[in-house]
Design a protein that fits this description.
- It is built from 13 helices and 18 strands.
- By secondary structure, the chain is α/β, with parallel strands linked by helices.
- Strands 1, 2, 8, 9, 10, 11, 17 and 18 form an eight-stranded mixed sheet that branches. Strands 6-5-13-14-15-12-16 form a seven-stranded mixed sheet, with helices on both faces. It has a three-stranded antiparallel sheet with strand order 3-7-4.
- Helix 1 (13-24) packs parallel to helix 7 and helix 11 (389-401) runs antiparallel to helix 12 (403-423).
- It starts with a strand and ends with a helix.
Length: 446
């Protein structure tokens, strides 16, 4: 089938956004997904920082696609004794099903071909003529393209079949994986929902996060929407068996809150938290989204990064004559690492330093002021922490209040700043990139 300029595997948000970007630039684009097109990608609610839509050249969600926007964000310790409030949450909570459908429709309108029910069997990478072998529903299909894009999520269905990538992108370790679950449910008892809000000093549609449910990286987010008669629930925890999974945390919470009613939609999945791979592609193949580990490590959100990656890949392709050339892949990889990879590696240092803390230690971290309105707001917005004089003084006072924690946090902040500075200058050279990557691993503890 073809020839196409680009063949994309995965029609979720990252894959559909990539198809949209490339088709709008006049390229012939094919997209295949193992699920039916209307079921591709995440089927739950996710949060994306507001600035990322403009950077990705994607219109901000409106109408039913936008679940909430700009309400207060409240972060509480698992003990319930400490909380941080961000007056205006800098993210949009959106229905991923509708966002993906919009991106797919835009891609099709621009000329892309999207087919579901096709799984990857093999990839032949040969010069300027890649062959992608797919099968499903009694069909066998070979798609020819100059560039193949892996947008299949953490499993990397294409990446794992290409030796040049599988060697440099080994399976993600359990301690770097978040097992997350999200559901939208009805409110079965409105008065019970109101009592929950009152008991936690919340307003309707506030985003209410709790950290350290079982210690370390184990968290729950609740948004009660009385007007809709619905509640959005999100739970996540590090894999490996030390913590309950996100699905288990969610089930336990629902069982303990009888005002929560039946499930409307949602899903669960494994999310990579480690920094993006040094190698975001090889000649003829590019990685986007979770397949490239493009996830913000502090809280596991990767939708916005995937959208921006699609834009950056589009820019790199537009600047060359062959979309699968090594020069295009290097240009794409360097631009992503310098812009967003640097942010991810900085917060990966923070994640690794705090994910093994106990619930009491996380409470102390908040009580001392290391986690405050500004640092929490910066993490939600997926930007580097600001260290203006007033904020630096606040962190200094936090260090005086909790000197033992300061011994952990002070070097962590130093590693964040240094890692960000190094990754912001990530080289285009295929020879130098692995050396820089190994240095970043040592710096953040990878």
């Amino acid at each position: 089938m073809g020839p196409f300029d680009v063949a994309i595997v995965g029609a979720g948000s990252a894959g559909a956004a990539t198809a949209r970007q490339l088709a709008r630039r006049g390229l012939r684009v094919f997209v295949g997904d193992k699920r039916p097109r209307q079921d591709a990608g995440a089927r739950w609610v996710n949060a994306v920082p507001d600035w990322m839509f403009a950077r990705a050249d994607v219109a901000a969600p409106e109408g039913a696609e936008r679940r909430s926007h700009g309400e207060r964000y409240v972060l509480a310790s698992a003990t319930g004794t400490t909380r941080v409030e961000v007056p205006r949450c800098p993210t949009t909570f959106l229905d991923m099903r509708l966002l993906i459908a919009r991106l797919q429709d835009d891609a099709i309108a621009a000329g892309a071909v999207i087919e579901g029910g096709l799984a990857v069997d093999a990839v032949d990478v040969v010069g300027r003529d890649q062959r992608l072998h797919l099968s499903g529903q009694g069909r066998q299909l070979t798609v020819r393209a100059r560039l193949v894009v892996d947008a299949t999520g953490m499993r990397g269905a294409v990446r794992s079949l290409v030796p040049a990538l599988s060697r440099r992108c080994p399976p993600v370790q359990d301690r770097d994986i978040c097992l997350a679950a999200q559901e939208v449910r009805t409110i079965a008892d409105v008065e019970g929902a109101r009592r929950f809000l009152d008991d936690n000093r919340l307003n309707d549609r506030d985003a209410f996060g709790v950290v350290g449910l079982a210690g370390g990286f184990s968290t729950r987010l609740v948004i009660v929407d009385l007007a809709r008669g619905e509640v959005d629930l999100l739970c996540g925890a590090i894999a490996g068996g030390r913590f309950p999974s996100g699905a288990r945390l969610l089930q336990d919470f629902v069982a303990a809150e009888p005002w929560i009613g039946e499930r409307l939609f949602g899903g669960a999945g494994a999310i990579p938290l480690r920094r993006p791979w040094d190698t975001l592609g090889t000649a003829g193949v590019a990685l986007v989204g979770d397949a490239a580990s493009m996830v913000f490590p502090a809280h596991g959100s990767g939708v916005g990064a995937g959208l921006i990656a699609a834009r950056l890949l589009g820019d790199a392709v537009a600047a060359g004559t062959d979309p699968g050339s090594p020069a295009v892949i290097r240009r794409y990889s360097q631009s992503f690492h310098q812009e967003l990879g640097s942010l991810c590696v900085a917060y990966d240092a923070f994640r690794r330093a705090t994910q093994d803390l106990s619930a009491d230690e996380l409470t102390a971290l908040m009580a001392a002021g290391f986690l405050n309105e500004h640092t929490t707001g910066d993490a939600l917005a997926q930007v580097m922490p600001g260290f203006a004089l007033q904020r630096s003084l606040a962190l200094g006072r936090a260090a005086l209040r909790a000197p033992r924690l300061a011994k952990t946090m002070a070097p962590t902040v130093g590693r964040m700043l240094l890692a960000h500075a190094v990754a912001s200058r990530f080289p285009a050279s295929a020879r130098l990139a692995p050396w820089v990557g190994r240095g970043l691993d040592r710096l953040v503890g990878g």
